[in-house]
Amino acid sequence: MVSQEEIQAAESRAGGIRSGRAPRRAALPPLVRHLLWALLAFAVVVAVSSVVDPFTNVRVATVGYLLLAAAGLTVLTGLTGQVSLGHGAFLFVGAYTVALLVTHVPSLPFWADLLIAAAVSGVAGVLTGAAAARLHGPYLAGATLALAVGLPAITQRFPDFLGGSNGLGFTVNSMPAGLDVPTTRWQAWVVWATVLLGMVVLANITSGRVGREMRAVRDDEVSAALAGIRVGRTKVLAFLVSAVCGGLAGGLQAFLLGTAAPGSFTPALSLTLLAAVVLGGVGSLWGALWGALALVALQAGAEELAHGLSLRTDVANFLPLAIFGVVLIVVVLVLPQGIHGLLRKIPLRRRKDSHVEG
Amino acid sequence: MQSDPALTVSATTVRFGGLTALDDVSLAVRPGTVHGVIGPNGAGKTTLFNVICGFVRPVRGEVLWRGESLRHHRTHDLARLGITRTVQGLGLFAGATVLDNVLVGAHRHRGSSALGTLLGLRGAVRDERRLTERALGVLDELDIARWRDALPGALPYGVRKRVALARALVAEPELLLLDEPASGLSEVEVEELVVLLRGLTDRTAVLLVEHHVDMVMRVCDHITVLDFGRVIADGPPEQVRADERVTEAYLGTAG
To answer: Which residue of A has its CA nearest to B188?
Structure first.
């Protein structure tokens, strides 16, 4: 069908792939593999949280919920190609759901609050996704940005219920009786346990059939439909998954800070999340981790820098964002595949495809 | 040959504004046959495919699949009904490996739910293994298994074309729609395609649209000739070849 030279040329272009090789990592089913990763990650978090000070533990937890939010966004943007500039809105929904539940239904255990927050933001995600399924590219980005700008403003509309600009403050007593660890350490554990459960589900999606269908929809909607994939439903599913992650992340943030306030959910948050995804590497869950780590590290570095230079508060407040912007520009110029793209090239050169990895 | 038709296009008319793309077109595709549609550029061949796939709604007439109208079906229903299609631009998923491209085509035979995949249930894992075996089988059959982990963009056109065919075949369709399967192929590749298509007749009917008249004459059991949206000839290759109107459409005044 093609000449031998052509075959060889194509094989070298494609990375010398031979037929008949056993599938990699065939030994363990995906679920087991992902759970092992999660357990390992949790062990690392427990170890780290036990040696650092409370302030750093808050940062460890912050990496956690940002990771979940960024990973959810990765499924949406990286897998189905839908760009959301409004993901902060789902964090907002999750945070306020948790705040309201803790305040008004104190009898509920905290895990139930989180579940309900996930469900409520999931509904918001389905509604957004249904509207978004007909929009493409910049139109979708614009519509979702409007959501991020508009939604937090409802706190001003119902100041008695939603606390206006000050938001809702509350305390959660989630630590089991008899367990004696510092609060921030416990909080980091709760955040990361939730986040890692979410990540296991996301990894199942990206490595399995649903992820493959999402990538198909991203690459060619007509071919996807001809293969029997319901294009609209797949896009909405991505929004649902993504919004649930965002809602959980928001709920965890509220849990961590003991408050849900509109100031935490500005459009800048949404843009920062998307930037974190790009920085880490679009379409990879590992990329979401690097992105979340970079966000928190840059924030911390910028704060120290501002402190060291004794900058005025109004300048210091914007320094992290400015530094983050510069880093983002540099990464996009130098490493279009993000941090994960760089890391993937270094060890062993083992992956040749552009899979979203678990 | 006289079994009930699998697919029937009956008296179908399509207009784009003032242009009549298909004018009262009827044809019947019988199981186990290769049916070719030929005609000069703009004769309405691809429009015919687009009507069958639900991309274009006819103003009159309808498409019947095993006696049932496809009017109320959406594009994504076709694969489930047993109809798959290749498109002219190939429409491969650029960000997915050859194997994943073909696995998407196997969608029709999935057994597990989306929820099962999310939770990584055993059924989903088994399902995935089954689909992968099926896809690898088709890759082997089309002699492209060596590229299973490559991205389509890195491959020669002939191989990419086979990937598109594999994606349509893996669904084990009862009707395979091929939009210009021979275009861009070398003479040798066309020969291989002819052999391949003849070998498909024991499992699926094939309806193909093609410019390569010589290839169509050799591979098809039945040929429909379109010109300016109208059927000008319909019958076995030797009958169509002898038809004066066909020669005229290709060589004469219509050119």
So the answer is: A1
Q: How confident is the model at residue A315 (pLDDT cuts 50, 70, 90)?
A: confident
Residues of A in contact with B77 (CB under 8 A): 228
Residues of chain B found within 8 Å of residue A229, distances taken between Cβ atoms: 76, 104, 107
Best of B117, B175, B177 to disrupt the A interface by mutation (most A CBs within 10 Å)? B117
Whether residues B117 and A355 touch (CB distance < 8 A) is answered with no
* A21 min Cα distance to partner chain B (Å): 9
How many Å apart are CA A306 and CA A317, to the nearest integer?
A: 9
DSSP states of B133-166: HHHHHHHHHTT-GGGTTS-GGGS-HHHHHHHHHH
Mean pLDDT of A151-175: 86
**pLDDT averaged over every residue in chain B:** 89
Q: Are B185 and B193 in contact (CB under 8 A)?
A: yes
Q: How many CB atoms lie within 10 A of CB B137?
A: 15
DSSP string, A320-356: HHHHHHHHHHHHHHH-TTHHHHHHHHSSTT---S-PP
Does residue B113 lie within any of the structural domains? yes
Work out the percent of chain A whose per-residue pLDDT is above 90. 48
pLDDT above 60: residue A229:
yes
Dist. CA B167–CA B98, nearest whole Å:
9
Identify whether residues B149 and B200 lie together within a single domain.
Answer: no
pLDDT at A8: 53
DSSP structure string for A107-163: TS-HHHHHHHHHHHHHHHHHHHHHHHTT--HHHHHHHHHHHHHHGGGHHHHSHHHH-
Contact between A19 and B146 using a beta-carbon 8 Å cutoff: yes
**Which of B154, B171, B188 is where one domain is finished?**
B171
| B196 and B75 together in one domain | yes
- Give the residue among A134, A132, A61, A90 at the shortest CA–CA distance from A246: A90
Gap from B252 CA to chain A (nearest CA, Å): 35
Does residue B166 share a domain with residue B178? no
Q: Given A208, A210, A230, which is nearest B76 (Cβ)?
A: A230
Chain A CB contacts of B192 below 8 Å: 1
Q: Contact B155/A14, CB-based, under 8 Å? A: yes
Domain of B5, in residue numbers: 1-82+173-255
Averaged pLDDT, A83-110: 93
**Closest Cα partner for A252 from A178, A300, A199?**
A199
Task: Quote the number of domains for chain B.
Answer: 2
CB distance B38 to B225 below 8 Å: yes
Spatial distance between the Cα atoms of A248 and B142, rounded to a whole number of angstroms: 47
Q: Are the Cβ atoms of B97 and A223 closer than 8 angstroms? A: no
Does residue B234 have a pLDDT over 70?
Answer: yes
Give strand ranges (E) for chain B: 7-16, 19-29, 34-38, 60-65, 68-69, 83-86, 175-179, 205-209, 222-227, 230-235
Q: Mark which of B171, B194, B214 sits at the end of a domain.
A: B171
- Evaluate the CA torsion angle B231, B237, B240, B241 in order and state its sign: positive
Chain B hits for A204, CB-CB cut-off 8 Å, are 117-120
Name A220's Cβ contacts closer than 8 Å, sequence gap at least 6. Answer: B91, B92, B93, B94
Cβ distance of A200 and B120 shorter than 8 Å:
yes
